[in-house]
Amino acid sequence: MNQTPNALSGIVRELHHVAIAVPSIAEARGLYVDLLGLDASEPEHVADQKVNVLVCFVGGQRIELVEPSAPDSPVSAFIEKRGGGLHHLAWRVDDLELALSTLKAAGVRLIDESPRLGAHNCRIAFVHPKSTGGVLSELVEEPHSNS
Question: Is residue 9 predicted with pLDDT exceeding 60?
Answer without folding.
Answer: yes
